[in-house]
Amino acid sequence: MMEIQTISALNYKNTSICATIYSSSDNQGTNSTTILYLHGGGLVFGQRDDLPKSYIEKFIKNNCVFISIDYLLSPEVKLDEMLKVLKQSISSISRQYQISNNLFLMGRSAGAYLCYLLIRDGIKAKGFISLYGYHQITLPEFTNPAPFYTRFPRVLPMNAQLLVKQYPLVKGPMQDRYPIYLSGRQFGTWINSLVPLRSCLVSLILTQ
């Protein structure tokens, strides 16, 4: 039987960063494999429990603990701060549940990119599951207007800016969040919303 528990990992400027822990009631060992999952959404939208339950159930049936965790979203928070707070959140969970000994990272799209950064920065994982992830955000398809997104009605940057909150958040209504991402991809400004300065991109570049 699958047990589901929601815990608070961290509080960041009055924003609660939580995690959902899925486990089997039959699995009481401390040496179980832990899958730590980061959701997709272009680092702008999405929420931690977006993975279909059928995926999670397969992990649980194979004696794994599955943890999905919040992370701060852009552009309210820049990527360097997002990554720093994510590492703090993982450390908090690790102290409570001793997940570091047999940890696998799992990311979906933008979540996979964050996993790459975590591994680069020293998070020790025995493996990494990438669901259509990318390892680089400085590629031309990200820094230039993207033809796929320009087919849709334009969201002017000034209109997208009106949807940006004045406080950090880990999720939000799709009708508010997706236009921010769409505008960034249409006008090639997505990267600008992620980094405080173009010079900071060097710290976010990964080599293959």
UniProtKB/TrEMBL annotation:
InterPro entries found in the cross-reference section: AB_hydrolase_3, AB_hydrolase_fold, GDXG_lipolytic_enzyme
Superkingdom of origin organism: Bacteria
Lineage: Bacteria, Bacillati, Bacillota, Bacilli, Lactobacillales
Residues forming coiled coils: none
Stated name of the protein: Alpha/beta hydrolase fold-3 domain-containing protein
Species annotation: Lentilactobacillus farraginis DSM 18382 = JCM 14108
GO molecular function list: hydrolase activity
Limits of the Alpha/beta hydrolase fold-3 domain: 35-119
Stored SUPFAM superfamilies: alpha/beta-Hydrolases (SSF53474)
Pfam family, one: Abhydrolase_3
Hydrolase in keyword set: yes
Signal peptide: none
Keyword Membrane listed: no
Record keywords, A-Z: Hydrolase
